[in-house]
């Protein structure tokens, strides 16, 4: 019997079933859930939502993760870059999200998704403007395979405008994409957690010469960048005012960084003042139109 | 635009002329991850099964567990054919029994779930029975290859709570809630009618729910399409039986998935949870519940707290007057049912 851990009991199994049936959970959602589960386990000792501490919750997850790891699943967590909610998701460790999706989507839809991802992480992510998001209009236009697209897309079919819209809706509904108020699509926290390895492998580990016209691309522009404070991927946040500097921070991580530097509000890499930091994310689209040098508007 | 084919392949050198989706390798190496993780759990787990030189059995078990979870997530049955193709491979079919039973143990110990075989389609009509008999005499054995399973919970009933385990998520939970509400009620209606619901009667229920043409389930806006899906997913099944003459008997029965996922327990639980009564012929109530959970306004009465009823069992009502237990055969589901004590129910969901 693979009773890997004697601490592992039905409360963990029930919690796993709960998180399997949802896409993501926040701590706030998990509290009543865990209380209910623990009460079910022990009806004589009802547990209330407020009895569940963050520590209880984290410990619960740790025990589950120990048991899950041989199966290549893991509950991972990340702060939402916009809402700052702490998000927990059951992540498939060994097969990336695209592989999983390829069982639900057609090859043409997956090829479309790849074009959208390429746009988000390549053409919408240049040294000058790290937008890392794509407007609905631009995304839908990618339904058509660019004719200069070379052979890799040769066997794929175009998606009609309606098909592309439906695919985008579905990606939002399934929790892979998020759409902002201004209509920009970006990756959800869950997608970032599930795709982390794939993104790095696909967009960072290759010889890639930037196709924008910055002129000064002597050094390659690293596509996937990480927060100096929490080490997660940054697709929404701040960047060092020095355009060639690699330092990025989530908005919610800035103050931790400063605190760690004894209150000095400088770039942790090139020590330039962080006050003129530039936006990463959708804001960079507006910013890029106004200024190239990073004077804030 | 830079293309995928330029991507360096560290793990799997192969031809670079394949299209985008092909590079999504179905079998990414797992070692990196496992190495990082604390080895203790690994040993306590995998090694128990992998006697020397039998690494692949271990891998197959893992693949089956993962396949089962993936199928469940998409609300697809786990098909025997998929197991052969995706788990066992060309040389592994003789391992089926071992792999399956170990995967069962793992599913149960880790997830509190097991693969439950879907009952074979019942041979209900005379024609079906004849066809089956004919196939049998010709020695066709289609059973094993057509077998399929769905994941069901093995946890004690205290954990069977829709607030703990949501219905399988596809496409989104909210949509799913509507879909679940519909098939649960349909299955309840069929079950409470003694297992067979004449098509004409179903039609009447749909009319009363204002669902004769359209449904609130996105992706299945047309009632016809919704019923196709319900049939395809084996929640309910339509039976046509010609009784000798010109007349054709059309009725609905509970399908194999409906039996496993909802079943009599589900029906009993549904009725009990919502009304605080034991099984009773509360068709009217079921409709009300369905209307509420679907947010369909009920023109005849002003009782509408649109939505939410499906996942929020009402507080226990006073037990209803009629103590008659339903023995499962026969439901007088006509319109006059239970209209008299409606007034008591107006607020049944308000204070939970
Ligand atoms: Zn950060
Ligand atoms: Zn810097």
Automatic annotation (TrEMBL), chain A:
Residues 227-270 form the Non-structural maintenance of chromosomes element 1 RING C4HC3-type domain. GO terms for molecular function: ubiquitin protein ligase activity; zinc ion binding. Pfam families: SMC_Nse1, zf-RING-like. It catalyses: S-ubiquitinyl-[E2 ubiquitin-conjugating enzyme]-L-cysteine + [acceptor protein]-L-lysine = [E2 ubiquitin-conjugating enzyme]-L-cysteine + N(6)-ubiquitinyl-[acceptor protein]-L-lysine. InterPro entries: Nse1, Nse1_RING_C4HC3-type, WH-like_DNA-bd_sf, Znf_RING/FYVE/PHD. One of its GO terms (biological process) is double-strand break repair via homologous recombination. Its EC number is 2.3.2.27. Its main location: nucleus. The keyword Metal-binding applies. Keywords: DNA damage, DNA recombination, DNA repair, Metal-binding, Nucleus, Transferase, Ubl conjugation pathway, Zinc, Zinc-finger. Component of the Smc5-Smc6 complex. This is Non-structural maintenance of chromosomes element 1 homolog. The lineage of its organism: Eukaryota, Fungi, Dikarya, Ascomycota, Pezizomycotina.
TrEMBL record, chain B:
GO terms for cellular component: nucleus. GO terms for biological process: DNA repair. Residues 1-10 have a biased composition (Basic residues). Residues 64-267 form the MAGE domain. The lineage of its organism: Eukaryota, Fungi, Dikarya, Ascomycota, Pezizomycotina. Residues 1-47, 294-352 are annotated as: Disordered. SMART domains: MAGE (SM01373). This is MAGE-domain-containing protein. Residues 329-352 have a biased composition (Acidic residues). InterPro entries: MAGE (IPR037445), MAGE_WH1 (IPR041898), MAGE_WH2 (IPR041899), MHD_dom (IPR002190).
